[in-house]
Every structure is written in C-alpha cells, then in structure tokens.
Amino acid sequence: MSWTHYVLFLLLVSRWCITGESSSPEVTDDVAPMEISEREALYSAIQGFVGDSWNGSDLYPDPCGWTPIQGVSCDIYNDLWYVTDLTLGLVHENSLPCTASLKLKPQLFELKHLKSLSFFNCFTSPMKIPKEDWINLGSNLESLEFRSNPGLIGELPETIGSLTKLKSLVVLENGFNGKVPASLCNLTSLKRLVLAGNLFTGKIPDCFNGFKDLLILDLSGNSLSGTLPSTIGEMVSLLKLDLSNNQLEGKLPQEIGVLKNLTLLDLRNNRISGGLSQNVEKIRSLTDLVLSGNPVDTDDMMGIKWESMGSLVNLDLSKMGLRGEIPSGLTKLKRLRFLGLNDNDLTGTVPSRELETLPCLGALYINGNNLSGELRFSRKFYEKMGTRFKASKNPNLCQYEIVSESQHYVPPLGLKPCKMKKTEGNLVILQTLSNLEKEDQSSSSSMGVMVTRHVLSNGFMWDLLLELSLIVLLK
Ligand SMILES: *[C@@H]1O[C@H](CO)[C@@H](O)[C@H](O)[C@H]1NC(C)=O
Ligand SMILES: *[C@@H]1O[C@H](CO)[C@@H](O)[C@H](O)[C@H]1NC(C)=O
Ligand SMILES: *[C@@H]1O[C@H](CO)[C@@H](O)[C@H](O)[C@H]1NC(C)=O
Ligand SMILES: *[C@@H]1O[C@H](CO)[C@@H](O)[C@H](O)[C@H]1NC(C)=O
User: Fold this and answer.
1) Residues with Cβ within 6 A of ligand 3?
2) Pick from 65, 165, 64, 81: which is nearest to 117 by CA?
3) In angstroms, what is the span from residue 54 Cα to ligand 1's centroid?
4) Contact 61, 8 (CB under 8 A)
5) Contact 111, 138 (CB under 8 A)
6) Per residue in 161-181, is it b (16+ CB within 10 Å) or e — as a string?
7) Where do the domains of the chain lie, and which CATH numbers do they carry?
C-alpha cells in the first residue's frame, strides 16, 4: 500500500468512527486500488457535468470501493480498479443531476476501460458534442446512450463511427439534426441502433449489408427522406424495424420478405406508395404490422395471403388508400387484437360473423370507407368492444337491428339501422331463418320480439324453437 493510500485509509477509519455507523465494519478494508490518473479523470469528468462545486475526492474517496458514486460501476483489470460504466443525469432519485452549464471534459475520454456510457436527461441547454476524442474509447465502448437530452443539437459526430466495438447505440429523443453519419456503417457489431425522436434529415445510409447481428433498428420520428434502403433485407437477425413518422418514399422493397425473424414492422406515416409487396406474407413471425398513413393507394391487398401471417396481433392498414373488399384471409388471424382498416376506399360487405369469431379481437376500425350491406355483429360483441369499434362514415352500411333490454348496451355510433324491405310473412321468415343460420348471439328478431337471454340461457336450441314458433305465428 502506497503512503497516499495509507493516509486515505486512516482518514476513512477516522470518519467511520466519527459518524459512528455500525453496519459492515469490514468495509474499510476494501479500499479498491485505482491508478491515481484514472480516479482523477473520473472526478474531473463528473465534475464537468455536475458543476465545479462538486468535490469528488472529498465526497467519494474510494469510488470503486466503499464510497460508490451513483451511476458509476468499476471492474478489476490487473489488480487495479477501472471505471466500466458511467451514467450521467437524472436516472434515479439519488443520481447526480447535470448542471445547465455542463462541460464535456477531455478527461472523460481517458477512462480507458469504459464499456458503457449513458447520458439521460442531462443536456438541457443547447450544445454540440465534440468530434475529437471518441476514438480513445473505441477499443472498449460497447454501449453509448443519449436519451432525452433536448439540449443536444447539431450533427452526431462522424467519429462515433470509430467506436467499432459498439453493440448498442441509442440516440433517443434529443435535438440532433443533419444527416445520419455514414460512418455508422462501420459499426457492424451493433445489435441495437436507435436514432428515434431527433431531427435527422436526408437519406438513410444504404449500408445494412454489414449489420448481420442487428436485432433492433429504430429510426422513427425524424425527417428522413428518400427510399427505403435496398440492403434492408440483409439484416438477417432483425427482430424490430421501426422507421415510422419520417418522410420515406418509394415502394416497400421486395427484400423485406427475407427478414424471417422480424416481429415488428412499423412504417406508419411516411410516403410509401406503389402497392404492398406480396413478400410481406413471407414474414411469418410478424406480430405487429403497422403501415397506416402511407399513400399506398392500391387494390392489391387481396393478393396477399393474410392467413399465412398467423402470428399477427396488431395490424394497422388505415389511411392507405386501399381499394377492394376486406380480404377474407384477415378473418383467419386468430391472434389478432387490433385491426385498423379505417379511412380507406374499401367496398363490399363486412364479414362480421367471421370477424366476431376472432377470440382476441379487442379493437376494430372500419370507419371511413365505402362498405355496404348489413353489419351482423352481436350485441355481446359491441359490448366487448365499446368505443374500440368504429364503423361510421360508410354511407351504405347499416346495422342489423339489435333489440336489447340491457342497460349496458350502447349501439355503435354513426350507423343507421337496416330498413326492413317488407314486412309480409315470407320475407320476414326468410330474414329470420338467415338470422338463425348465423347463430345470433344477441337474439333479436326482425319483428322486434324480445328474447331474453336470462331465461333462455342455455342457448341456441331455445332461440331456434322460439323463432320457429314466431314464424308459425306469422303464417
Ligand atoms: C476537494 O477537497 C479537498 C479537501 O477535502 C481539497 O484539498 C481539494 O482542493 C478540493 N478540490 C477541489 C477541486 O475543490
Ligand atoms: C469506417 O471504415 C472505413 C473503412 O472500412 C474507414 O476508411 C473509415 O475511416 C471508417 N470511418 C470511421 C469514422 O471510423
Ligand atoms: C431466427 O430466430 C431463430 C429462433 O430464435 C434463431 O435460431 C435463428 O438463428 C434466427 N435467425 C437469424 C438469421 O438470426
Ligand atoms: C360507394 O359504393 C357504391 C356501390 O356500393 C357506389 O355506387 C358509390 O359510387 C361509391 N361511392 C364512392 C364515394 O366511392
């Protein structure tokens, strides 16, 4: 033990006695030896963020040992302790908040074993991050995060591309603008690349051929333009692809079908046009497919074998200028919870009975189309859906009359009841029979005779008998 450590040790022991704490007394033995330069670099780096009044050596004499600093983790290399993780900004209640006049000190880049560096809610007043120095962290840094730093403006420095060991680069909800640096193409070890919620413009670099390990690519919420990169299909491991809320245009690339492990594809609110790629149906693992708000303007929706995408849970195809009928394949997606087809130009009838059989369906939007005919959903269905069902703004669509004594039943808004064409015997019988064939849960009849489910709770046979007797009466 060097004399400085010895002095420090005595100092710590005396402090210990003065404050009179009694738990884990052997902690004083655990002075974690560090290179002096490493420790000074740590103090300086932190001081740059929290302000000059912060005195690290005074408050945290043993930062990798018994006086840990919130947001700092260390590890041993050759019997000495080095900082491996550094998180700056308000993550926890007791973390050190960044001052408004913070400085990114050069000492930060002297922490040679740093593996993970995060800035959360730290930069509040406008500043750019320096271009220099990043290369010094290149041999170890695996994770770099800038989250929720509205003050971070300007371009993301090209030199970030020298951090070739990076597995995770998260640049989420800051004020960065300019182009996405092409040097990011060098970061071929990345598993996660998130640049969402900034002000990036220009094209997405077309260099994903190197990104064989990438699992998550999220560039959503920027102003990126141009076409989708054709190399997109080469990110063979990809699980989530979110490019939503940009200004991307052109067609959905055929290559998308190669991404066999993709579970989320979110391209909503872009300018993607020129039809849907039939290759979408090849992504069997997809649980979330969100393409809404793109002027796709097509009737090729029918050409897709929707039934082959049996993992789909959320399917949003609203506001896309889709024409044609609602494809029957959609009614075979047993896991579907959310189906958005609203604000298109869909025509034809609604396969209500088939849709009603989907066991998980909890939201269905077909409003704002030109659908026609009768909706035959049951009262039970409407009760389950509540406001998560919308069918209004389809001028030629009507609701088959549901008569209910339930006070909970609120009919769906904006739908007119279907008019009865004739009330003479035969026609009513026809209508009643077709009603029976389709096993009406809500038990209504075209004549407005109430069938109370409370009494006839064991079901269908009773409905049948009752309705048959009604038919006999009418005759
Ligand atoms: C921190 O405090 C120590 C005494 O505890 C003092 O010697 C040192 O000068 C102070 N450093 C700064 C930067 O204020
Ligand atoms: C990226 O790699 C290329 C060669 O592979 C190299 O010329 C370039 O300097 C690298 N860029 C950065 C920012 O490291
Ligand atoms: C896709 O996922 C499976 C199962 O998780 C995995 O075994 C396979 O390696 C993945 N494919 C790629 C190309 O990463
Ligand atoms: C809606 O569909 C009907 C046929 O069902 C057609 O006559 C009408 O022109 C369509 N309306 C619009 C606005 O496309």
Assistant:
1) 236-237, 261
2) 165
3) 9
4) yes
5) no
6) bbbeebbbbbbbbbbbbeebb
7) 1-26 (no CATH), 27-348 (3.80.10.10), 349-419 (no CATH), 425-474 (no CATH)
Q: What are phi and psi of 300, to 5 degrees?
A: -85, 10
| C-alpha 186 to ligand 2 mean position (Å) | 6
Distance CA 430, CA 438 (A): 13
Retrieve residue 469's tokens: 């007797």
DSSP code string of 70-120: TTEEEEEETTEEEEEEEEESSSSTTSPPPPTT----GGGGG-TT--EEEEE
Distance CA 319, CA 338 (A): 15
Give every CB contact of residue 455 below 8 A, 6+ residues apart in sequence. Answer: none
CA 41 to chain centre: 38
Minimum CA distance residue for ligand 1 atom 14: 55
The tokens 């609602």 sit on which residue? 326
Closest ligand 4 atom number to CA of residue 395: 1
Bridge-based pairing state of the strands 199-203 and 240-242? unpaired
Q: Report strand pairing: 216-218 vs 192-194.
A: parallel
Question: For residue range 242-301, what is the model confidence (pLDDT) as tens digits?
Answer: 999 999 999 988 889 999 999 999 999 999 998 888 888 999 999 999 999 999 988 878
> At residue 225, what is the residue type?
S
285 lines ligand 4 (CB under 6 A): no
Ligand nearest to the CA of 323: 4
Q: Phi, psi (5° rounding) for residue 280?
A: -55, -40
- Which residue carries 């990036």 as its tokens? 200
Nearest ligand atom owner, CA of 11? 1
Neighbour-count burial of 321, counting CB atoms closer than 10 A to its CB (0-12 exposed, 13-18 middle, 19+ buried): middle
Residue type, 456: L
Backbone angles phi, psi at 217, to 5 degrees: -125, 115
pLDDT at 183 over 90: yes
Q: Which of 29-33, 134-138, 312-316 has the highest mean pLDDT?
A: 312-316
- Closest ligand to 15 CA? 1
d(CA 172, CA 219) in angstroms, rounded, equals 9
pLDDT for 427 equals: 41
Is the Cβ–Cβ distance between 231 and 208 less than 8 Å?
yes
